[in-house]
Design goal:
Layout (H helix, E strand, L loop, with lengths): L1 H28 L32 H15 L2 H14 L7 H16 L1 H5 L9 H9 L1
Helix pairs in contact: 2-3, 2-4, 3-4, 4-6
């Protein structure tokens, strides 16, 4: 009996993490991407010289703008709110999906700076294949 229970436990220990990651990935991929938000892009207002004021400043990438907004939100509220907004933005703007993991890792590292590793880990969610948890682990 003990041998059978141990064998079942080992099997679950190997299979369960894979199932959790795949179910999170499938849940994200099953989200309808039709709800396209009308995101506006901010431009920085800097000039090269006083004689050339008509030169346009380089625009910041949407993922950089989103990362900065979410990091500010994390400082004001908590990482859970920032992760929820990250998931909504990725659902509304699929072009941000390829940057989701790096943004979630940055949120995890910022959460460690603000709350410490133990409390930061308590905010972890399966957003962007657990990249938030990786950011917490890497910053600890």
């Amino acid at each position: 009996m003990t041998h059978t229970a141990r064998r079942i436990g080992r099997s679950l220990a190997l299979v369960l993490p894979v199932v959790l990651v795949l179910s999170g990935t499938l849940a994200v991929s099953a989200v309808p991407w039709a709800g396209q938000g009308s995101g506006t892009q901010m431009l920085t207002a800097s000039t090269a010289s006083s004689t050339d004021v008509s030169t346009r400043a380089k625009s910041r990438a949407p993922q950089d703008i989103l990362r900065d907004q979410l990091l500010a939100e994390l400082q004001e509220k908590d990482p859970g709110v920032a992760l929820t907004h990250l998931q909504r933005e990725v659902e509304n703007r699929p072009s941000l999906a390829k940057h989701c993991m790096s943004i979630a890792r940055a949120l995890g590292a910022a959460a460690v700076d603000r709350f410490g590793p133990t409390r930061a880990q308590s905010f972890s969610r399966p957003v962007c294949d657990t990249s938030f948890a990786y950011g917490v682990l890497h910053a600890s």
